[in-house]
Amino acid sequence: MVGEKMDYIQVGKIINTHGIKGEIKIYPLTDDIHRFDGLKIAYLGDDKIKVEIERVKHHKDTILLKLREFSNINEILPYKGEYLYIDEEDKVTLPEDHFFLFDIIGCTVFTKEGEKVGIISQVIQSASNDIYVVRDDKKNKEYLIPAVKEFFISVDIGDKRIVIDPIEGMIE
Description:
Strand content: 35-45%
Distance between the termini: 52 Å
Radius of gyration: 19 Å
Number of strands: 12
Shape: elongated
CATH architecture of the largest domain: Beta Barrel
Largest sheet: 6 strands, antiparallel, barrel
Order of helices and strands: EEEEEHEHEEEEEE
């Protein structure tokens, strides 16, 4: 519908072009690289230009996309460094106790005693588990909190509030 407000979710970053026929190389911002396989429509860049995905290929840890609207490298080159989005309605349903990165970033972290630790500023994705970077601006410190269930008492995405039970030395 014209004028309908949509919410968008970043699913990848355009890190380069591929070939001369307008393909793009995407760094996926998702745990499941196969998330792109069934994707038909996406939105390109800050202006959220609607694009139709013709083809998806997996290339090492990246995704190669062919978009119907672009037929040569010169047309797509200006979008290098931009993000690829989907409509929030198209996001996958996650299992219980799993969260989207964009939901975690910005959450305020507290200890079980109620002490504010800081705000999650980024998520580092590693082979074994994610690591939350928690920034305490008052103390000018950053803490690295492994995203391991044993450390987490509660996660309330709606209130952007996370309560942890840190081990000794984790937040000193």
